[in-house]
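ok so for the tutorial part 2 we go from a plain amino acid sequence to predicted structure tokens. step 1 is just haveing the sequence, like this:
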Amino acid sequence: MNADAQYEIKNKNWFPCFKDAEIERDFMREFNLEALKSGKIGVVIILTVWVGFAWFDMHLIGHGKSSALFFRLAVATPLFFIVLAGLYSKYANVIYQIVVLLLLFIIQCSIYQVVKYYDFQVITESLGYELPLSGADGKYLFVFVWLLVIFMASMIARLNILQSILSGLSFIFVSLLSVFYYHPSVIIIIIIVPFLITTLPIVWIGSLHVQQYARENYRATKLLTKSKLESESLLLNILPVQIADRLKKTPGTIVDGFKHVTVLFADIVGFTKLSEQHRPESIVHMLNRLFSKFDTISKQYGAEKIKTIGDAYMLAAGIPEATTNHSAIAADCALDMIKETEKLSDPDGNSIQIRIGIHTGPAIAGVIGTHKFSYDLWGDTVNTASRMESHGDAGKIQVSEEIYKILQSEFIFEPRDEIKVKGKGLIKTFWLKGRRGALI
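step 2 — the prediction. this is what the tokens look like for a chain of 440 residues:
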């Protein structure tokens, strides 16, 4: 599925959600995780307000004081700390929306219950002031203002649309309940009616914008991450991991000298004739099957594929990180490459035959250029390994004397007469036959 389609948002203008249910669940987990931060800050504010109400409790007398304290300490406070524990539990991310909704409802009901014991005229007179409203109007306005503050807090808490609407309905319900309980004057009712009428539209519009922004931001972040991963994956297909990391940190030329590396070349016997007799698609398909097998073998033994040059395949062992067994790695790769090639056929149905050459010695490796760069290898070791392949025989692995000296205790070799190599003169070489103790 296309990445844009995978993160498609439906119902953008009403109740936005991701079309993919799994992505929607992942989004809500991240959304709640961020919302938790706001929720915890809100809890501190609410706790401060809750403690501040104790000042009003000090002005209560008689039964009202004992009833208010009982409700505060025996009912509301335990419920508050239960909800608080939910916000800090390991399940907080899952239950956040419900916990916050429950907390807001508890506080709304608590204010309503506690304030019913207050006589604001007595409280204000004790402070030297005179309340210009009736007791019912004073209580109702006090309750309504705090309900409004709590309602606005629900917007800060980043509730999703459904929970925000439920919070708005709770605000309307408790506000209307207070009207029936306190019986405020008509003028007070006229003042608060616009607030109640606009509650749900405000909740819906506010939550909608929060959800739209959060989802678009989530979608953009995921698409950017996906694009970055695809780019890094492509880079890792071109360069070794270590080199790719260095190139990302320090762009430019990368050159490393190695005292000991082993280079292997493999070439298809009779490839030129085959390519002339068959369609390009058949030839490319054959090369892809063969080189894919070689890629698997290289990865299995920890060798580094350097490049393909036409029908030639080049790998090296001991780079980009130096190893002590690089010659053995190249030898194991060569033996497996011969075995895998025997299982494949050319477009004519005949078995594919390859020549392999191996040499070891110093070399320079690195990345040069500014675009279409690749990790490459240079030096006489590379040239000699190429000569080992080009002067070899079909279905055989020719190695230099240096390889023989290093691996003669682990592998089986067959000596070959000296061969004349351009630029080298007569040199002694060997055929690699197999590992000691293994079936040949």
